[in-house]
Structures are given as C-alpha cells and as structure tokens.
C-alpha cells in the first residue's frame, strides 16, 4: 500500500506512485493507494483540520480491511510535515506491517532537530523501526549511516536513464540555442546553484543556451544573485 497525495496532484511523489502502480510490479504484487496530505484537494481550513485528525483512524481501518503486507511511506524531511508521517509509521508498525520509508529530500537527518535531543531520538527510533529507508543520493546514504548504523538505508535514485544522453544527437531545435527548463521549488539542495556553475563553464566554451526557472522558494533571491555573479542574468 502506497501512501501519497492524490494521484491526480501535480506532485513529484504522486508521479512516482503513479509510475509504480503502472509498472510491472503489479504482476507480482497487489498494489493499492491511500491518500494523504493536502495536495490535490480543494478543502476549507476546517475540512483540512478534520482530515488531519481523522486520517490516522482511517488508515488503521484501511490496513485492517485490506491487510497489506507492506506500507510504503513517502516522506519529506521538514519538521512540520514529518510528525504526520510519524503517526502513519506508528500505526503501520502497531499492526505489524512491513514499512518502506522513502525520503524525498528535505534536511539531512543530523540537521532535522538540531536543538532537541529528545525529538532527534524519536526521529532516530522511527528510522530504525523502518524495514527499509530509501534515499535518492549517495550523500544521503552516507549521512544516514553516520546518523545511526542500525538504519537499513538503500540508494534508489530517481528513474532517469542518462546513458549516452550527453553524446546523443539533438533531434529537435538543433540549429538554435539549447533550451533548458527547471520547474520546482527553489531550494539549495535541488542542484540549481551547481547547474549555474555548469552553465557558466558552457558559456565560457562558447555554447549557446537559455535556462528558464519556474518556481518559488527560500533560495530565490540567492539564486538571482548567483546568476548575476556568474554572468547569466537575464
């Protein structure tokens, strides 16, 4: 059973779960979905509060009724949203279900609760209690192993096959500058600043391109400043 936002939501997690539900896994497993979070919902503040309070009980009843063997959580490490997912993990373990805890970005484990040893201890126990913790990068694997060696952490990168991509001939727009687009949150750990540095090197070698960034986030002004300093503004 996959826990994620609405399958129709414009969300990276929803895209992942839709991909898994439509994959060959369905030939070996009975796959199902339980909706969590506010993405893809049109609701008032009161309905949102009611959903937040009722959701753990609904999950308990759904697990009892459907009897899944494995619960697949999709978690982003921000302090506000993590507690909701922690409740879901507790319910799944209470009902003796296997738990896959997939981390979709956010803080590194050492920095999630830097001012509270008690909250950090709860967080550590939740990770250790998961049968598998899935992360997206080798840097995260190293960070989680340093955080607690008992965590069963696995590297499963996002499914992008980049084989021979850099050397492949461009089939479209080959006589014009390369057009690049980023759509998503503007935060430091998305690789945007590294992308600017790569583009600075390409520009120095005479390559022509445009990069359009659509999104919002705490690093927006810093990114503008970085574009100015690397000569990529405009």
Search tags:
single chain; 234 residues; alpha/beta; four-stranded parallel β-sheet; two-stranded parallel ribbon; 8 strands; globular
Structure description:
- Helix content is 40%, strand content 18%.
- The chain has helices at 12-21, 45-66, 79-94, 117-129, 138-147, 192-204, 220-229; strands at residues 2-4, 33-35, 70-77, 98-106, 132-135, 153-155, 178-183, 209-214.
- The strands form three sheets. The protein has a four-stranded parallel β-sheet with strand order 3-4-5-6, with helices on one face.
- Helix 2 runs parallel beside helix 3 (79-94).
- The mean pLDDT is 88.
Instruction: Please report which band the strand proportion falls in: under 5%, 5-15%, 15-25%, 25-35%, 35-45% or over 45%.
Output: 15-25%
Radius of gyration: 21 Å
Through-space gap between termini: 46 Å
Q: How many beta-strand runs?
A: 8
Order of helices and strands: EHEHEHEHEHEEHEH
Q: If you average the pLDDT, what whole number results?
A: 88
Q: Provide the helix percentage.
A: 40-55%
Strand count, sense and barrel status of the largest sheet are:
4 strands, parallel
**Molecular shape:** globular
What oligomeric state do these chains adopt? single chain
Low-confidence runs (pLDDT<50, min 5 residues)? none
Put simply, the count of helices is 7
What class would the helix/strand composition place it in? alpha/beta
Order of adjacent strands in the largest pleated sheet: 3-4-5-6
